[in-house]
Design a protein that fits this description.
60% of the residues lie in helices and 6% in strands. The chain is mostly helical.
Length: 527
């Protein structure tokens, strides 16, 4: 087999996500042609596919060293920097690409995606529009690519609370491609289906028609099934709702499996590591900013809580962040496990490198306030680190009726592989149980450091509960917190976008009773 054919084989492996074959085969060929920028870029893409971003950056940078004009490698390198959380480096590269080649359309879209990561939605929206405009003018750009850009714009409008503009873009997408299940799903999240509302029922019927399309990909089916499940629940047709929600979860489980065993091992490992660590001996170097960490089970009310707190004049709502987890993985992991000795060593260094590295991520943001919310639900895993290295922070732990919480997880689709345990009802309940065990452990170690925000109390007695939350966070009273739905300064990037933009409502309380007969096994597993 000649060299060209070998590289074609590697490209095929990349397309089928057989990343190890690409890396193994690519490195063998590199021994014969060590300075080939195309091959270096290819290996970098394989590492990127494995989420090994530092390795991918190393190969992309070597590719660019050999050929500084390799725009594809530059774009890929920027994507890896973005995924790794190095936003400023990513921004520099995307802007460099646009300067070199103003017609490289994907750079506009990628830079827009980056800007949403640090809440520059105005900048992102302009870039999405530019990408759409360029792609429509370029006959060689597939319609599917243009639709991807349009969908990103619709999501940005929704996250930025520009609902009508989002709906306009969605309708344009569906006029061009009726089978765009993502657009149907986004539209369904903004509709309250009702038999009295003809427009909503018409959309439900259209989704049912689309369901008969045998050419739908698995991912489109998943989006469509979740949308139909939501629509039928709205009109109180709970058996049909469960039918579609169950079909969506089964398909996701078949495609992506479950990581529940890994999560259980991690939680047990965290408890073992922190059992004999004195969490009262926190780092003496106090961070310059106060972080309010809002955590808990996903779908427990974390987005609602952040919208309430970040409505306060003195608070910047940063949204759902990965920075804490990345800093922990970088500094405390060795051979894929937490290193207890590293925790002690870093705590004894005079400079608080953990809070410093964490806060460096905010350099690219436009933040005037000294208080920042970090609403990553699963930060509940890292509360020991928060106590040691962010002693001036506040922890708001959101909790909810376990059955309602698990049902809500069953009803929603999550893009992150970290959430693959949510693709199976039994695993959802198992995860809830190990989460409760870990929270019980943290509360035994640092009870005064954690404030419980109970969803049921918050939605039934919001005035008193909001006052308690603000008092715990050492924030003065601000009337804006009572009207969180008017808070457009904090974008919402999660599946909670539509619900969290509504005034507080109690209709979701005890919603599990509508699905009790279908999810009996899941509910029985809950402790």
């Amino acid at each position: 087999m000649n060299l060209v054919d070998k590289i074609k084989v590697l490209n095929n492996y990349l397309q089928t996500k057989n990343f190890n074959k690409v890396i193994e085969g690519g490195k063998k060929i590199l021994k014969k042609i060590p300075n080939n920028d195309y091959l270096l870029n290819l290996i970098g893409m394989a590492y990127q596919g494995k989420s090994q971003y530092l390795n991918s950056i190393r190969f992309f940078e070597e590719s660019l060293k050999q050929n500084p004009n390799n725009i594809a490698a530059m774009n890929n390198c920027a994507n890896s920097f973005k995924a790794f959380g190095a936003f400023e480096r990513a921004k520099e590269l995307y802007e460099k690409i646009i300067n070199k080649d103003p017609n490289y359309i994907r750079a506009y879209n990628n830079l827009a995606n980056l800007k949403t990561s640090y809440n520059d939605y105005n900048g992102a929206i302009e870039l999405y529009k530019k990408a759409i405009d360029l792609s429509k003018k370029n006959k060689q750009v597939p319609t599917s690519t243009t639709l991807d850009f349009m969908f990103s714009l619709a999501v940005a409008y929704q996250g930025f609370n520009k609902i009508e503009k989002s709906k306009e873009v969605i309708e344009e997408i569906l006029s061009l491609d009726f089978s765009h299940a993502g657009a149907h799903k986004l539209k369904s999240s903004m509709i309250k289906y009702s038999n009295e509302n003809k427009e909503s029922i018409d959309h439900l019927k259209k989704m049912e028609l689309l369901n008969d399309n045998e050419k739908l990909t698995d991912n489109k089916k998943i989006d469509l099934f979740f949308s139909l499940g939501k629509a039928y629940e709205d009109i109180k047709s709970f058996d049909k709702s469960f039918y579609y929600l169950n079909a969506a979860n089964k398909l996701r489980h078949e495609k992506y499996g479950s990581n529940i065993d890994n999560e259980k091992k991690l939680f047990e490992h965290i408890i073992k590591i922190f059992e004999k660590i004195n969490l009262e001996e926190n780092h003496s170097d106090i961070p310059s900013k106060k972080i309010i960490f809002i955590c808990g089970m996903p779908r427990s009310g974390t987005t609602l809580t952040e919208q309430i707190v970040s409505a306060h004049n003195d608070v910047y709502g940063a949204g759902e962040l990965v920075y804490l987890q990345r800093v922990i993985q970088k500094n405390f992991y060795h051979d894929s496990k937490l290193d207890k000795q590293r925790i002690k060593q870093i705590k004894d260094i005079s400079k608080n490198i953990i809070s410093t590295e964490y806060l460096e991520h905010f350099n690219i943001y436009n933040i005037n306030q000294n208080v920042i919310t970090d609403k990553a639900p699963q930060n509940f895993r890292w509360l020991g680190f928060v106590k040691l290295f962010f002693p001036n922070s506040k922890i708001l732990h959101c909790s909810r009726n376990s059955k309602d919480n698990c049902l809500s997880l069953f009803k929603n689709s999550f893009a992150s592989a970290m959430m693959n345990w949510s693709n199976n009802p039994s695993d959802i309940a198992k995860y809830y149980n190990i989460y409760e065990e870990l929270m019980k452990f943290w509360k035994s170690k640092i009870p005064e450091f954690i404030f419980d925000v109970e969803y049921e109390k918050l939605v039934t007695n919001k005035n008193d509960e909001i006052k308690k939350i603000l008092k715990f966070c050492d924030l003065t009273w601000d009337e804006k917190c009572l009207n969180h739905e008017k808070n457009s300064k904090t974008p919402i990037k999660t599946v909670s976008a539509a619900q969290a933009r509504r005034p507080i409502y109690s209709s979701s309380l005890n919603s599990n009773i509508n699905f009790d007969k279908h999810l009996d096994e899941m509910f029985k597993i809950l402790k």
